[in-house]
Write a structure and sequence with these properties.
Layout: H1 3-30, H2 34-38, H3 40-50, H4 53-57, E1 62-69, E2 74-80, H5 82-105, H6 112-131, H7 135-153, H8 160-191, H9 196-200, H10 212-226, H11 235-238, H12 244-252, H13 257-265, H14 267-270, H15 274-297, H16 301-322, H17 325-356, H18 372-386, H19 392-402, H20 409-434, H21 453-471, H22 473-489, H23 506-523, H24 525-537, H25 543-565, H26 570-591, H27 606-624, H28 628-648, H29 652-673, H30 686-712, H31 718-730, H32 736-744, H33 746-768
Antiparallel strand pairs: 1-2
Helix pairs in contact: 1-6, 3-5, 5-6, 5-12, 5-17, 5-21, 5-22, 6-7, 7-8, 8-10, 10-13, 12-17, 13-16, 15-16, 15-20, 15-24, 16-17, 16-20, 17-18, 17-19, 17-21, 17-22, 18-20, 18-21, 19-21, 19-23, 20-23, 26-30, 27-28, 28-29, 32-33
Length: about 800
């Protein structure tokens, strides 16, 4: 691989972050034109990626990588195949017009530069996600999409609803991110590599492995939370608190499509099993119907579109779960169609809201004359949502029906779900396309006015591409759709995509049935909405309220646990700590049959026995001491005994260090205790004495047994040999102990010194803050009675 190509592909994911870093500064210079300037970045990325369409359509792929953590064999690798290319082109292409639109939509906003930085970084995170081959790199960009979406959803942080929606989004998707991290680690453990392409090509069949269920559950949890599948669907409609450009980008080509991409990318590893089929088809189908009905219930057009995104995501998940060639082709084709019409419709709704002051569909009408260009954009987007020929969405709908043309009862049941779901989505498209524009002009919060070129360019271009894509369906199928489907299945597919309107085909009549459902639902839209609103008001519990209950319980539980563990009683802290220490020392030795044999009685000289006697005397003195000063001085005896042992066994440097430490400790303790009454006795109840004594004995026995176990093992001299060999050669010192302290573990020593210094400063401040007794007051009149002599 050419190094320049490696760098260029890596820069596709990195350059948007660099642009985000300078976006506020560009805004200061370019002002209202900042959106156009920043749009150069995704436009350039789109043109660069477009150059891969030819090689990818021929069955080739491009991989690239740069060193990430070489010591651990980690490379930030990227992979451009049909699936990644389709997603990346959608992200960069739609992102170009989103930035242009944002410059106009937020014109005059005091934080427009910050917003453009956030949304540019959001685009970079999504590009990195779909292009990553390294599963840890994919997780990194996955989390960056959550963080940047949090910033965008909560951009208007002065409103409580925006803050709550942002927190809800990052909590739900963050939980899925943790599941993805664990899945990535498990996959690396199973396959021995980090790259997804290497896992797919390894030949290991994960489906028959014992860990398949665990990996499948973690991947599905990550994908379902990201793509808002039931029961994690509730965060996505609340994310409409974000500005309209965010909603358009979030729902069409970024963020929520991350879960769909993950399912598609891992299909060669996890797909093809009964569990995969049942879970994806069941949850995808349920989410499709749930989202479609919820969209009918809404009157806010952004909420209507948000709920249809739920439905469309469920449809994409269902198609991936079917696992057939036609289903994969339909999934890729529908992704393109949905990205185009959903981005266009969201931007159109933003223009209506900006031009009239409301996005409530029941308060709008007659806008076709004052907002003609917006009406044209709404028609293009609405027709795409309805799926009429010659739009690409029509071909996608027929392809998904083809995937269920086997005629068996299960396929017919799933087909019924698709027809009803698509029909309800088409009814929403009809409502947004017709109701705000037809009929008499209705009064709005301010007189309607048309959007500018920056606002209208995106919706009109997306709608036009939707039409041209259907007309050029053969080229689209061969260049983008078939390579993407082939990447999902890891099997080379030939495209049969073409625009056909054949009344003799059963697929055509299924489309007619879908439009009939749409017409009926639109005809009775107000009645359906009223009925669904009554049903929604009946339950006293919802998933949204459930999230609030969980968060409230989490906060209250954390507060209770904090009060339990952080009660402020130092004595209990020490008791718990040393009990845990005793358990940590003794339990493994007992449970793992690691108790050492008792050593023989040592053959010591009289002065060595003397040192031992000093240590024992010090222990007894500390235990029986009643006065504080006496206990402090007795405590120093232990350090003295240890220092003597070091000296007797040939470690004078350590003995000297121990002497200094003990002297310093005793001096510091004594100085601190001067603030207290040193002659005061500390009476201890018998139960406290027995408790603390037992804990101390257990800790002492545990340390002793552990040391005996360690010394009973064969001596490993590699570390000793290393220090003996390299102390003089590398550190230029012959005193090995000093070299270890100063050079090999110099940072550790520096840290210890810093801690001692900080403690010393704190103690000095404590001593100096001690209140001194005030001098006795002098009499105001001299004792001699001379009133003329005043006291000083």
């Amino acid at each position: 691989m050419d190094l320049s190509l490696d760098i260029a592909i890596a820069m596709v994911a990195i350059v948007p972050f660099l642009a985000a870093a300078v976006a506020p500064f560009i805004h200061r210079v370019a002002g209202a034109a900042t959106g156009w300037v920043l749009a150069i970045v995704p436009a350039t990325i789109f043109v660069f990626l477009w150059g891969f369409v030819g090689p990818v359509s021929e069955g080739r792929f491009v991989s690239a990588g740069i060193d990430w953590v070489p010591s651990y064999g980690l490379t930030l690798s990227f992979f451009v195949d049909g699936l990644a290319l389709m997603f990346a082109l959608a992200i960069s292409g739609i992102g170009t017009f989103i930035l242009i639109y944002s410059g106009s939509y937020l014109k005059g906003h005091p934080h427009q530069g910050r917003f453009l930085a956030f949304i540019t970084a959001f685009m970079g995170a999504m590009l990195g996600l779909v292009l990553s081959d390294n599963v840890l790199g994919l997780f990194l960009f996955w989390e960056l999409t959550s963080v940047t979406s949090f910033l965008l959803i909560g951009f208007d942080h002065g409103r409580e609803k925006a803050r709550r929606a942002a927190i809800q989004a990052i909590v739900v998707t963050g939980a899925g991110g943790l599941a993805l991290l664990l899945a990535a680690l498990l996959l690396n453990r199973l396959f021995g590599v980090w790259d997804i392409s290497a896992m797919i090509g390894s030949g290991l069949d994960l489906r028959g492995h014992g860990a398949y269920g665990l990996v499948l559950g973690l991947v599905l949890l990550a994908a379902f939370t990201k793509s808002a599948q039931f029961p994690f669907h509730f965060w996505l409609p609340n994310a409409m608190e974000a500005p309209t450009p965010v909603s358009a980008f979030l729902h069409s080509a970024t963020m929520v499509q991350g879960g769909v991409y993950l399912l598609a990318r891992t299909t060669p590893l996890l797909g093809g099993t009964d569990a995969w089929f049942v879970i994806l088809v069941t949850f995808g189908g349920f989410t499709l119907i749930w989202g479609a009905l919820a969209a009918i219930r809404q009157t806010d057009m952004k909420q209507m579109l948000a709920q249809t995104t739920l439905a469309s995501l469920g449809l994409l998940v269902l198609l991936i779960g079917l696992g057939t060639e036609a289903a994969f082709l339909a999934m890729a084709l529908y992704f393109i169609a949905h990205a185009l019409y959903k981005a266009g419709l969201f931007l159109t709704v933003g223009i209506i809201d900006h031009g009239t002051g409301t996005k409530d569909i029941t308060r709008l009408g007659g806008l076709r004359d004052p907002m003609t260009a917006t009406f044209m954009a709404a028609i293009l987007g609405g027709l795409g949502m309805i799926g009429l020929p010659p739009l690409v969405s029509y071909i996608a709908k027929e392809e998904m029906y083809l995937a269920l043309a086997s005629g068996d009862p299960l396929s017919l049941a799933i087909l019924l779900v698709l027809v009803v779901g698509n029909g309800l989505l088409a009814a929403v498209g009809l409502a947004i396309m017709i109701r705000p524009f037809m009929g008499p002009l209705r009064e709005t919060p301010h007189p309607p006015h048309e959007g500018d070129v920056a606002s209208l360019s995106g919706p009109l271009v997306f709608g036009t591409i939707g039409v041209l894509g259907g007309i050029a369906a053969v080229w689209l199928g061969e260049s983008l759709v078939a390579p993407a489907a082939s990447s999902i299945a890891n099997v080379a597919y030939e495209s049969h995509i073409k625009l056909i309107v054949d009344p003799r085909s059963v697929l055509f009549w299924l489309s007619i049935l879908t439009w009939a459902v749409a017409g009926l639902a639109y005809w009775r839209l107000d009645a359906l909405r009223a009925g669904l609103q009554r049903l929604a008001a009946a339950p006293r519990w919802s998933f949204d309220q459930g999230f609030d209950a969980v968060m409230f319980g989490l906060v209250r539980g954390a507060a209770a646990l904090t009060r339990l563990l952080h009660h402020g009683r130092l004595e209990l802290y020490l008791v718990v700590f040393f009990i845990a220490l005793a358990v940590a020392l003794l339990a493994p030795l007992y449970l793992l049959d690691g108790l050492p044999a008792l050593p023989p009685m040592p053959d010591l000289t009289f002065y060595e026995w003397g040192v031992m006697a000093v240590a024992v005397a010090g222990v007894v003195t500390v235990v029986v001491a009643r006065r504080r000063l006496f206990a402090i001085l007795a405590l120093g005896i232990q350090g003295l005994a240890i220092a003597l042992l070091f000296m007797l066994f040939g470690a004078p440097d350590l003995a000297f260090t121990q002497f200094m430490v003990e002297i310093l400790s005793v001096v510091i303790l004594t100085l601190v205790m001067t603030r207290l009454r040193l002659d005061h006795e500390d009476p201890r109840p018998l139960e406290d004495f027995a408790r603390d004594g037992m804990i101390a004995l257990l800790c002492g026995v545990g340390v002793t047994l552990l040391m005996l176990r360690v010394v009973s093992l064969p001596f490993e001299d590699r570390l000793s040999a290393f220090f003996a060999t390299y102390s003089a050669e590398i550190a230029h010192g012959r005193n090995i102990v000093n070299v270890i302290l100063v050079d090999f573990r110099g940072l550790d020593t520096l840290g210890e010194i810093s801690v001692v210094m900080a403690a010393g400063i704190a103690i000095l401040a404590l001593i100096r803050s001690q209140k001194r007794p005030a001098p006795p007051e002098q009499p105001l009149v001299a004792p001699s009675g001379d009133a003329s002599r005043s006291a000083p």
